[in-house]
Task: structure prediction
Amino acid sequence: MTGRRNGPAPAWLLGGLGLAGLIVLGELVPRSGLVERRYLPPVSSMLSALADQAAAGEFWQALGETLRGWAIGLAIAMVAGVVLGVVIGWVPLLQAALNSTIEFLRPIPSVALIPLAVLLYGTEPRSTLLLVVYASFWQVLVQVLYGVRDVDPVARDTARSYRFRLLTAARTVIWPTALPYVMTGFRLGAAVALILEITGELVIGSPGLGRQIAVAQNSNAVSAMYALIIVVGLIGVAVNVVARAVERRALRWHPSIRTEAAV
Amino acid sequence: MSALKSVVRLLAVPALLVAVWWTATEGSTDYFWPPLRTIVGTFDDTWFHGRLTSDVLPSLLRLVAGYLLALVLGIGAGVAIGSSRTLRAVLEPVLEFFRAIPPPVLVPILMLFAGIGDGMKILVIVTGCVWPVLLNTVEGVRALDEVLRDTARSYRLRRGSRLVHLVLPGASPQIAAGARQALSVGIILMVISEMFAASEGVGFTIIQFQRTFAIPQMWTGVILLGVIGVALSALFHLAEARVLRWYTGLRRAQREG
Result:
């Protein structure tokens, strides 16, 4: 971010300007009557609706439900994706046999499972959990498979000649190479898990912020609906930021991060 | 011989899985898990006598319309934002925020503006698909090769030809990555937008089956959605391989060299 021509403004200042511009625009456009306030209330009334929400215990409970569902789903998907990815990626026969199955199953849209989830679990949190795990599992699995494929062939053959057991090979040979990929899978999976968590709550009606949005919509509480959507967006930003921070921390030793930091 | 081998390898496990499903549910009396034989038997009746043109086709047309519109908007805005350092810095936090909003929550908002017609559904698909395309285009344009960029400048290529010969091809691998993400988002939104309020469409029909406890029909819907997802992603792969032929060739050459 070093400017050559008479020092441009720093990025954070410009970014702040952009955000401020968005907020001003969100306030002025509805007030000027350009867009009906019924459809897009001014930012100030969204914020006061948000304050009302924050005063009610229901909001915090819904927030907790959403975060819990997200975390549990992501954790299950991570464990399953990493374990299966390492096993499948390490055994050539398994990989050859399962490759086509994975390619078939992966593009099946997770929302196809919504009717099934509703039938099995109704509006319990479990039905949303099913969607979250299914959607984020593929993100993790595919990245782990890439990572295991990227292991140096010499290291791989050496491990085979010395008859490393799978666990030893996983710890000493696979893990260091695959870790950047695992972290990418974690980042992608975290974002997808949040999307499906909210979607499940919104469409199925399992408890959480998504259901609160549906409730606000049905009771025509437009400002509250926008306020909740802003909260969901902020959670999304936080998830991305945290996932990136975790990635950087876990990969401090890795050349891709080291060079980035040095520049 | 090796062709036969690879076919076996390709189909062995999928065939095995279907066989397991078939035998495990054979004679099943569980209401929610009907025999696969029944599901396959109702497939033809459920979809191929009218619903293909009255439900599946409208859904797919909306998906295509929304997706293409998102591609045009995303690439256009992405090139503009990616080419200007200041614009990029100003818009980055705003874009981060909009990208982080799960696209399905846009459905209630867009219902306010556009009602529940085709327009709303296409708009939902556009607003969901545009972000991956836009952000990847910005990244692709930003990461253009410095030497190529300077060369184009020294030769005083005009704006239009710089765009066609340098910027778009240079960013195309990234744009393709964004377009692939956008496609899966688009399929999700196609279904979700119809689950809210609709009178036709694949998503609507499947939810209707579920609500009326038409279980085998619902299963055929789940399978149909899976098939649509797989088919669209295969189509995308074909198109991508064609457009990016030069790039995959280059990568291979670099790896071997």
Notes: Residues 42-262 of chain A form a domain with the MetI-like fold fold (CATH 1.10.3720.10). Residues 166-204 of chain A form the longest helix (39 residues). The mean pLDDT of chain A is 86.
